[in-house]
Structure formats: structure tokens, C-alpha cells
Amino acid sequence: MQIPHSSRGDQPAIRPGDRVHVRRARWRVVEIRAFDGCQVVTLCGLAPPHLGLERRVLAPFDTIEPIARAAQPRIVRAGRWRRACRALIAADGPPGSLRTAQAARIDLLPHQLEPAIAILRGLGTRLLLADEVGLGKTIQAGLILSELLARGSIDRALVLTPPGLREQWARELADRFAIETTCVDGRTLRTLAAALPIGVNPWRTVTPAIVSIDYVKRPEVLPAVASCRWDLVIVDEAHACGGESDRRAAVHALAARAAYVLLLSATPHSGDRESFASLCALGAADAGSERTRPTSDRTRPATDLLVFRRTRADAGIGTARRVHIVRVRPNADERRTHAMLARYSNAVLRERTVDVRVDRSDPNHRAWLALSVLHKRALSSAWSLAQSVERRLAALSAVDHTATEQMTLPLDDPQGELIAIQCRLANLPADDALRGELPNARRH
């Protein structure tokens, strides 16, 4: 397309491929996208410090000056000519081929290319990436994001992650794919709102945005996020959004309107079929009708879902483990310590009359956990066991018992992120449950 002359009369017409001078640097026009009253121009740097980098400017607000083409052919060295030819050949691939994989700052493995190729070839728009830990789910999601951005298929992307993974996502996307992102939190929004006119939603000014799921689900935050259009929604640790929860409702509200939905989870199945079906229905257009289905039909996902589930063996990564057994003979003091701890454990169990076979919902089962902690401390070192015992004795002998008593830990839910159904099913088998549970899903 062509940018027409602006109303100021000083903005010349340019086309993709033209060389221009913008902000005191030389660039090549990659793409021009027209909007109401303005155009977004994507530029690629031609000289350091912007060589090879892409930037976007807004016309006619940025001054774009075309650089006149040379009237005579320019003679270059053979090495530069070959590099230019290779770049042209690589960029002129058939439909469905990858464009940005060659520029990624990482050695991509074959299995990491498959999800991006599947989406580019139209095999699906909703994808569940359930590879084992260590197979590069973040890298695969970054490649999909990079490919869709390079083709202009999406403009706005939202990455939903646990709070502790936001910075990691930002580093991976910047270092591997040169994608600059914004980690959004309350402070970031206040800073943006202070610089924007009154009434402008700050969420509309950031993309790609990386935000915590726990922050987005807040009632005072979700309406502003949901009012924006997101072309791609990536949900990391998506298994935490299964079942009936505020997280699930918030993520579904954002993903249901997105053109592409990417769910990432190394443990998608907790043993509960309904929770797994709820996870697979995230972002589905007709997922809201699942409440009206017959009970026997609610375990099926609302729409087709493209599933990738690969193990390390499937990816061709060695799985052999070398195990070395080191036999340690305790000395007399260590044997006496373990014997005294065993007598203490037996006394506690006799006092509580705890049976090993009792249900974990019984509060007395926590005595087993407390004793196991002491035994682990003893196996670590005598000093570790002494520290635990001294802290416990200090807490019990304190005058102000309520002020110094050790706080009760969330033993059943250390992260505080599980829903009730997940707590009840924490010990159910999950590895085999993923197979054969999705009649409408295509597995790769």
C-alpha cells in the first residue's frame, strides 16, 4: 500500500521496500498498516546501532523522508551479494513455512517447530502445548508469537503467567526473538495513566503485555483488560485455570474473544475429567454453553483443540539416568540421634493413635508430615535437626504463646493456588488420564 500525502503537505508517499530517513537514522520500510487518521509504519534498520532491528513509527506524526535511489547500479563485493541472495531465498518460502526461526537467537530443535507450523498451516487456532518439563514450551510459544507478528496476522498479544514468571517471559522473548514486551502491574498502569489523556485505557497502549493471572482476575482490573481486543492470548501454567474458579473465569473472558489461544502446561490432567475438560474449553467460542449440556456430555471440550504432548523420548532427547549409590555408615553419635528420634516419633504416634491408612482429610495426618520433616532434617545433618528442635522449643516455651507460636503453614496447598477439586484429587493418577480423554482433540 502507499501512504498518501498528509494534511501538512510535507509527508511524501512511500511504499514497502523504500529506504527512508527517520529520527536521524536510515531504515527500510517493511510494512505499512492504515488506521483511522494515521498509519503504522514498520521499519528495519540499515546501519548501526539499529542494524537489523525493527521499529514502528506513526505517520504522519513522525517525519518520514524517502532516500533517493541511486540512478546507476551499485557494485558490491561477492560476499555481500551472496548474503543478500540467501536472505531473499529464505524470506521467499512457500505458504506455511517459518520466517523468523532462522533469526531466533537459539538453536531450535525439530519438535519446537511443529506447533508454529501447525498454526501457520491452518490446522487450528486453539492449541494446548503439554510437553514434558524441559522441552521448551516458552520457546515454542515465543516462536508462534514471532511468526504471527511477522506476518501481520496479529497486532496485540497478552501473556498470562504466574507472578514469578513474568520477568522470565520478558527476558526469553527479548533475548531469543527480539520482541520487546511490557510487564504490567499496578505501578505500570499508574505510570501510563498519568501520561495519557483522561479516559484513555492504558491497556490499549501496551503490547505484547505480560501480566500475572492473579492480578488480571481482580474485579477492579479485569473489566479494563477485557475491554481491549487481544489477537493472541498465551496462558502459562494453564492447569491452574481448570475447574470452577476466578482464574478460569477471567482467562476465559479474555481468551474467548481472541483469534488465537495458546495454553501451556506440563501437567494438564490432575485426574479429574471435568477439570481437564474445563481447561480444554478455555477460549472456546461455545464454552459458555457447557452448563446447558447433559451431564454425561460435559466432559467433552466445547470445540476442537490442537494438542501437542511430547515426552523427552519423543523429542529424541536422551532420557537415560546414571544412578550412583553412595553407602554411608553412621557413627555412634548419629546412630544414637536417630534412635532417639525414632522413639520420639513412636511416642507421638501412640499419643495421637494415628493410623497410616487414615484419610488425608483427617487433621491428624499432619503429624506424619511434621515427623517426616524432623527425619529429613536428621538425615541432612545433626545441626539442621538441632536448629529445628531449638526453634520449636522456643516457640512452645514463650510467655506470649499467641505472639510467638509458629504460624500454620498451608500444608495441603503450599502455593495457595489450588481449588477445592484439585486438593481432593491431589493423589489421583494423572499421566494415563490424558490418553483417550479428548474425543474431539487432535493430538500430535
Low-confidence stretches: 1-9, 287-302, 354-358, 403-440
Largest sheet: 8 strands, parallel
* Spatial ordering of strands, largest sheet: 8-9-7-10-11-6-12-13
Class based on secondary structure composition and strand pairing: alpha/beta
SS element count, helices: 14
Mean pLDDT: 79
Q: Order of helices and strands, N to C?
A: EEEEEHHEHEHEHEHHEHEHEHHHHHE
Helix content: 25-40%
Strand fraction equals 5-15%
Strand tally is 13
Overall shape: it is elongated
Any idea what the radius of gyration is?
Answer: 29 Å
If you had to describe this structure to a student in words, what would you say it looks like?
With 444 residues, the protein is α/β, with parallel strands linked by helices. Helices cover 34% and strands 14% of the residues. Strand 1 and strand 2 form a beta hairpin. Helix 10 packs antiparallel against helix 11. The two termini are 39 Å apart.
Concise description?
The protein has 444 residues and is α/β, with parallel strands linked by helices. It has helices at 78-91, 110-120, 137-150, 166-177, 186-195, 213-216, 222-226, 246-255, 273-280, 332-352, 366-380, 382-397, 401-404, 420-424; strands spanning 19-22, 25-35, 38-45, 54-59, 65-66, 126-129, 157-161, 182-184, 209-212, 232-235, 260-264, 305-308, 441-443.
